[in-house]
Design a protein that fits this description.
Radius of gyration: 13 Å
Helix content: 40-55%
Number of helices: 6
Structural class: alpha/beta
Strand content: 15-25%
Strand order of the largest sheet: 2-1-3-4-5
Distance between the termini: 32 Å
Shape: globular
Order of helices and strands: EHEHEHEHEHH
Length: 135
């Protein structure tokens, strides 16, 4: 069953161009608007600029570590309500506190159905938050 994203926006953060392209194709195929960031600095900047309905976040990023990105997003009042879905081969290394910041943790390689379910759940928490920021 296809999800109904209602024009939701997802920010994909991963240092791998291949993973970003695959995630983009999957999510765009489900009707999501997608933005991409290769590194942590760009991710934080785009999250502040666009206030997406969800962020997918890899932990191994070239400039600012994914754990630091997660912490910054959740500590900033402008981005703390954005659900973050961690998608990483190193997801098992997250501390309990870091897991608390993530709305979901998915280990690479991921199952597409698990990914779509995680994104769907994440954006389901965002409708009111996004409307408030856009008005």
């Amino acid at each position: 069953m296809a999800i109904d994203p209602n024009g939701r926006r997802v920010l994909i953060v991963d240092d791998s161009d291949v993973i970003r392209r695959v995630l983009s194709l999957i999510l765009q195929g489900e009707g999501y608007q997608v933005d991409q960031a290769e590194g942590g600095s760009a991710a934080i900047s785009l999250a502040l600029q666009y206030r997406p309905d969800a962020v997918t976040l890899d932990l191994g990023l070239p400039d600012v570590d994914g754990r630091e990105v997660l912490r910054r997003l959740k500590e900033d009042p402008l981005t703390r309500s954005i659900p973050v879905v961690v998608i990483s081969a190193a997801a098992d290394s997250l501390t309990e506190a870091e897991r608390g910041y993530a709305s979901q943790v998915i280990v690479k390689p991921f199952d597409v159905d698990d990914l779509l379910d995680g994104i769907s759940r994440a954006v389901a928490t965002a409708p009111e938050r996004r409307r408030q920021h856009l008005n």
